[in-house]
Fold this protein.
Amino acid sequence: MTKSSTRQKVMDAACLLFYTKGYTGTSVRDIAAKAKVNVSLISYHFTNKQGLLEHLMVQYFEPYIELLEEQQNVEQRFSSQERLRKMIEVIIQYKKQHHQFTCFIHRELTLDNVLVREMMVTYLAKEKYILFKLFKESLKHTRVKQMQLQHLFLQFKGMLMMPFLMPYEMREHVLWDQSPEFFVKQYTETIMHWLEHVYQSGGLPPKKESIM
């Protein structure tokens, strides 16, 4: 077995166990047993469990940020709203392709620890910069006020994360026998419906009907 295939087996096993048992609930021995390798091989390749987690985080976020940067630089002949739509589709597609680790990462990001803070000042800061710039640009010709912008962006980010923060609900009520491609298309449409309301209403909630 080559070094690269051994590393990949360990990474795949860790990803599955971190998703199902959580980081703290998973031991190096658990990972070694799942990957069918010696514990010493994990130490050799990743030093320890923390090193393995950091490596997985980098492996997840580097291609993700590259995708966002590529999408950010698409031809300007498309409107900002069209580019935002494509950005949403790219993000949901990537998260769905890496479903287990996406769920694990979003769960870990709710915690306050050194690793999360490191992720926030590197990859998450880049993600926010790219998304907020395009989100703000897409609203430039609407009636959305500056003070509403941050709240709307928070809702937008929440919609991008929500299926992966609630994986069981998504599996039970959304996925059933649908293909991943169908889910990406449908969920992108769901977010776009919300954005269309924002574009048309200026971010204001619908008026309440009076009760006679």
Q: What stands out?
A: The chain has a mean pLDDT of 85.
